[in-house]
Every structure is written in C-alpha cells, then in structure tokens.
C-alpha cells in the first residue's frame, strides 16, 4: 500500500500537445499538458459566426455559441490532483519460469474531488510480458471510491521489481491532462527450476584416473567388452578368457571398457552480446543458455559427473564442480539469482581474457568445459579455442539469437555460421540451437559431432 | 547484430478505441445528418461525414476522424446558410460537437492505453458530461436568442458573440 499526495506547488506546466511524448516524472511531481482538443470546435464557431454575419441567418449565429461555451469550458475546469492510492495483489510472488502470475490492482481516489477521467498505467517490470488483459485502466472515480482491475504476467527468470504506476487525470472537458506517478513497490522472484528429466549430454572422450560412469577409450575393469590382450602376471583369474586358452593354449585377459567420472565446468557467456534476441520480446540468448545449462547440469550430475558453474561476466562467480543434493540446490540458486546471470544485462564491459584466466586457474586440470554462448563475436570463439588448447576438452552450445529480417541481421547470422564452422574444423563440437526448440530435443537429434 | 530486448516498446499495440466511443460518435453523427439535411448539398456532405467518422474512430485514425468531423460541421454550416431555423441548428451543431468529442476522446484513450484496457466507464462519463454541457449551452443559447430576437441587427449580435469568444481566449493567457 502506498499513498502519494502532490502539493500544488510541485505542479509544472508543460505546453506539450503530443500525447505520445514520454515524460520521465519524479514521484511526487506532476506535469500538466494542454490537450487543445476544443480548438476544432472553436474553429467551427468562428466559421459559423462569419457565415452568419454574411448570410444574416440567426440560426448560424446561434450555433457559434457552442464554440464559445466549449472554449471557455475547457478553461474553467482544472484537472483533479493525482491523489490516488494503488494497491497491488500478486497471486504468486515466487513463480516458476513461464508461469502466469495474476495481478489485481485496487485503485482508490484519495482526493476530495471527483475524477471524471482517470487513466492509469501500471508499472509492469520491464523484463516481464503481459500474458492476458491489460495493465492499463481508464475510469471515473468519485471521492473515496475504489475500483479494481486485473491482468496477468508471464514470469521470466530473475528478480523483477514493479515500477511506479503512471497516473493521468483529466478534467471533465479533457482540456488539461495532469500526469504523475504513484509508487507501489512490489517484487516478483522467479526462480528457474532445474529440469527433472535428464538427457544424454554429449561429453567428449576422456582419459582420467577416477572410476565413474563415463565410458573412456581405455581398456580395464568395467562392464562393456573392450579388447583382449596377452595375460600378464597379476591379472585376476576371472578375467582370463578360458575358452580361448582351451582353443589355443595361450592365456588371454579380457579387458572391459573403463567407465570414468568427469569434472565438467559449465561456462555461461553473460557478456552484453549474449543479451541479444531474434525479436524484441523473444527469449534472449542468455535466457536460452541458462535453460540449457540447467539441462546439462541435471543430465551430467545424474550420470555421476562433478559439474561446476561459472559465467563470462564482469563480476566473478564460481560454483566448484560437485554432485549431490546440496550441490544441486546451490546450482539452482546460481542459475536463478546469480547477479552475473541477471536478465537485465551487465551494463559493463567484460574482460574476457581475465574471465578465461579465472576459469583456467580454478577448473580442475582434466575438467571438460561446456561453453554456452550465442557466438555473436570472434572473441568468445577464440576463448573456446584457447580453453581447448589448454587441455580442457571443450564443447560449445550455441543458442542462435540472429534474425533474418534485414541484410545486417542476415550478415550477423552468416558470420556466426562461419565461427561455428571454424570451431568444428578445430575439432570443437558445436551444438547450433535456434533457442526455441526444447533443448533435450536438440541434444537427441545431435549426433555428437567430433568426439 | 540482432535487436536487444531492451528496446521493449517496439511490439505494436492495438490502439483501437473502445466500442462505447464508436457507438456514441455514430449516434451523434446520425442526429447531425438527419437534422441538417435540408438541402441536397448539406445532406451529401453530412453523409460523407457519417461514413468517414465511424471508420476513423474504429481504426483509431485521427486524420479520418478529423475529415469526417469536418463533413459534419460543414453540413451544419450549409444547413444554416440555407436558412434552417434556430432549434434544429442548435440540435445539429450540438450533436456534431458530441460526435467529434466522443471520437476524439476514444481515439486518445486507445492510443494511450490500448484496445485491451478497460475504459468503458471513463468513455461514458466523459460523453455524459459533454452531452450535459452541450444541452445547457443549447437551452441557454435558445433562451437568450428568444428574448433578444426583437429586431436587433445581426451584426450587433455577431460582434457580441465575437467579443465573448475573444474574452474566453483572454482568460486562457
């Protein structure tokens, strides 16, 4: 509940007629605007007056009285003060991504004057979209009267704050419009929930010492047949291929494919270019990347790997590779509320070199790296190549933010394809994803590229 | 480079006005045309206005609404020139003002708040006040006319009205 009363001294008169003009108005001040909407009637009155004199028709003269009356009417009335209280009730202030949040707004005329024309635009958080209804209302309110209206928002990841509600009051004639704002702070916290289903996430082949569930290209103890070799003293007797011994007389040891666990660091590109989207209201590449990182995290931890999270961003953030329920909670928090991944953009340049150095310093030496980036510039592609060259087997997941509605946009798309081709030529697998198709489908279709 | 979500306002909004404004504008325009169509020319001009005003208001087009309103006002002027008497002239002119006002108000609402916004109450309140004011003006005008129409020269009345018009402008400054 908030209440705003505006002293008359704060009134500023603006001689602006363009109603589309957007003012930035501090809470507590108002701007008056003359709509000049009665000018047409005045012109008609003058014409009638002139024609009446020329033709000496009393009926014409009489009609010019309307012009005079309405011109004066617009002057004698003044818009009521912006004394309105706005109370918002939100059905769910901690929704999941893509949930619909119902918002009900109660508006009350707190002044002692009737508001014949009260217009109100609720301060919908900039990164949320209206799913149903309209956050706007036009009504007439007597003193102390209250009305409510409702609309619903589509929840998007992150913390969203409602902006001040814009109020427009007009006098009955509509000749003057007064614009002010009323603060009604509310927040919606939308946590991205991790997907419940895991998918086969394509990791690259790996050689490490620790036993796990990732099939390595090495023979040893395991489940799946890998190769046979000559018996060496010390080999367990149950591994000896006795059929072969019976046939040939030689002792042979069967080797199975070794399954190893892998440390994986998921790196989300959260630099300003990653906030690109194919259309103004479409999902940004970053939001798509965070979604994909959630799928990758669940799939890889379910497969027994240790997974860490970090971002290429101006601010440092790091979740060490790990596994288990507690780590999963921390990963969920990281993907939902980490400031570096906020949906509104970093607003600062990212030192990409330093960010990559940080990853190299902190990631385990044999860790694989999965980079989630729209690949909208050469530098991030270069970073992926550098990480790969430093011994971290790197995979790139690339949500496509490019559009094809103009030559420039198509050129950006072509340059991105060239970057992808270049990475693939360097044996770095790239998953090219349009960002709208469900990520598990893309993985299911993807044949793994080069392993 | 693709567009960023920070240019969020690019999504086109439906700026059509609410139905109440359209209905009132059409009804008032109809009254104007019925009362003012004393000559074929006035009738034709008024009919053009009657057709164009609803299209303009319906589509939220200021230009079409202005053209249509000009037709309505033109029809009233032509009827007056042709010698229509005081009471029908007051009714026709008053209805033309209401048609213009309802349409303009509806278009403004549509542009500011969009078609989806609930605005019927504001539209009806505004139109109600305008109709009331126009009725008072018509009645007062007719009473003054009736009392004063005892042989005063038209020029004197015209000068008086002109002076009143200038006076209201002087109040404005």
List the helices and strands and how they pair.
The complex is a heterodimer of chains A (451) and B (173).
Chain A: E1 2-3, E2 11-14, E3 30-34, H1 39-55, H2 58-76, E4 84-90, E5 100-109, E6 115-123, E7 129-133, E8 136-141, E9 146-154, E10 158-161, E11 163-170, E12 176-182, E13 187-190, E14 211-230, H3 242-248, E15 252-260, E16 263-269, H4 285-302, E17 306-312, E18 318-322, H5 325-337, H6 352-362, E19 368-372, H7 378-389, E20 394-399, H8 407-425, E21 430-433, H9 439-445
Helix pairs in contact in A: 1-2, 4-5, 6-7
Chain B: H1 19-36, H2 40-59, H3 62-81, H4 86-113, H5 120-148, H6 154-172
Helix pairs in contact in B: 1-2, 1-3, 1-4, 1-5, 2-3, 2-4, 3-4, 4-5
Walk me through this protein's architecture.
The complex is a heterodimer of chains A (451) and B (173). Chain A is of the alpha+beta class and 451 residues long. Chain A is built from 9 helices and 21 strands. Chain A has 3 domains: 2-36 and 77-190, Immunoglobulins (Immunoglobulin-like, Sandwich), CATH 2.60.40.10; 211-260, no CATH class; 263-445, Rossmann fold. In chain A, the strands form 5 sheets. Chain A has a 6-stranded mixed beta sheet, with no helix packed on it. In chain A, strands 18-17-16-19-20-21 form a 6-stranded mixed beta sheet, with helices on both faces. The longest helix of chain A is centred in the N-terminal third of the chain and has 19 residues, at 58-76. Mean pLDDT of chain A is 82; it is low at 1-21. Chain B has 173 residues and is mainly α. Chain B has one domain (14-172). In chain B, 77% of the residues lie in helices and 0% in strands. In chain B, helix 1 (19-36) packs antiparallel against helix 4 (86-113) and helix 3 (62-81) packs antiparallel against helix 4 (86-113). The interface between A and B is large, with 74 and 72 residues.
């Amino acid at each position: 509940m908030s209440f705003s009363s505006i002293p008359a001294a704060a009134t500023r008169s603006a001689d602006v007629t363009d109603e589309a003009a957007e003012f930035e108005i501090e809470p507590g001040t108002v701007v008056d605007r003359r709509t000049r909407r009665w000018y047409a009637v005045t012109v008609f009155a003058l014409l009638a007056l002139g024609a009446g004199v020329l033709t000496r028709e009393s009926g014409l003269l009489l009609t010019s009285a309307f012009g005079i009356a309405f011109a004066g009417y617009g002057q004698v009335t003044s818009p009521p003060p912006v004394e309105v209280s706005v109370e918002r009730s939100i059905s769910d202030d901690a929704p999941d991504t893509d949930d619909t949040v119902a918002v009900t707004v109660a508006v009350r005329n707190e002044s002692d004057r009737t508001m014949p024309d009260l217009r109100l635009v609720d301060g919908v958080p900039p990164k949320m979209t209206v799913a149903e209804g309209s956050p706007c209302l036009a009504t007439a309110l007597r003193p102390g009267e209250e009305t409510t209206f409702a609309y619903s928002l589509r929840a998007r990841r992150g913390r969203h704050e409602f902006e001040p509600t814009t109020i427009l009051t007009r006098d009955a004639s509509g000749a003057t419009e007064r614009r002010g704002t009323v603060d009604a702070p509310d927040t919606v916290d939308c946590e991205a929930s991790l997907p419940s289903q895991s998918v086969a996430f394509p990791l690259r082949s790996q050689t490490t010492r620790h036993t796990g569930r990732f099939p390595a290209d090495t023979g040893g103890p395991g489940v799946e047949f890998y190769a046979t070799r000559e018996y060496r003293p010390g080999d367990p007797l149950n591994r000896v291929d006795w059929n072969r011994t019976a046939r040939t007389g030689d002792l042979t040891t069967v080797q199975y494919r070794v399954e190893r666990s892998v440390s994986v660091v998921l790196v989300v590109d959260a630099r300003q270019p990653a906030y690109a989207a194919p259309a103004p209201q479409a999902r940004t590449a970053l939001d798509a990347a965070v979604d994909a990182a959630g799928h990758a995290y669940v799939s890889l931890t379910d497969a027994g790997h240790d997974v860490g999270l970090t971002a290429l961003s101006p601010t440092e953030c790091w979740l060490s590779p790990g596994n288990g329920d507690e780590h999963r909670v921390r990963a969920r928090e990281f993907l939902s509320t980490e400031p570096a991944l906020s949906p509104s953009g970093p607003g600062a340049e990212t030192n990409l070199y330093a960010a990559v150095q940080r990853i190299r310093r902190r990631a385990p030496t044999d860790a694989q790296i999965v980079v989630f980036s729209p690949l909208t510039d050469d530098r991030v592609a270069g970073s992926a190549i550098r990480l790969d060259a430093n011994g971290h087997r790197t995979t790139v997941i690339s949500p496509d933010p490019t559009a094809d509605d103009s030559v420039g946009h198509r050129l950006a798309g072509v340059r991105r394809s060239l970057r992808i081709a270049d990475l693939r030529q360097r044996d770095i697998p790239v998953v090219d994803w349009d960002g709208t198709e469900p990520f598990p489908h893309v993985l299911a279709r993807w044949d793994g590229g080069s392993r | 480079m693709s567009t960023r979500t920070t240019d969020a306002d690019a999504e086109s909004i439906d700026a059509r006005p609410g139905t109440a404004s359209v209905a009132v504008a059409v009804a008032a325009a109809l009254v104007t045309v019925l009362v003012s169509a004393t000559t074929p020319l006035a009738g034709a001009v008024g009919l053009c206005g009657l057709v164009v005003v609803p299209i303009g208001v319906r589509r939220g087009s200021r230009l079409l609404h202005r053209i249509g309103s000009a037709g309505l006002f033109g029809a009233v002027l032509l009827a007056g020139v042709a010698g229509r008497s005081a009471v029908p002239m007051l009714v026709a002119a008053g209805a033309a003002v209401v048609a213009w006002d309802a349409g303009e108000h509806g278009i403004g609402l549509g542009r500011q708040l969009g078609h989806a916004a609930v605005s019927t109450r504001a539209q009806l309140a505004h139109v109600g006040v305008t109709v009331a004011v126009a009725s008072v003006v018509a009645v007062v005008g007719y009473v003054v006319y009736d009392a004063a129409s005892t042989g005063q020269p038209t020029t004197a009345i015209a000068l008086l009205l002109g002076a009143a018009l200038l006076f209201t402008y002087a109040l404005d400054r």
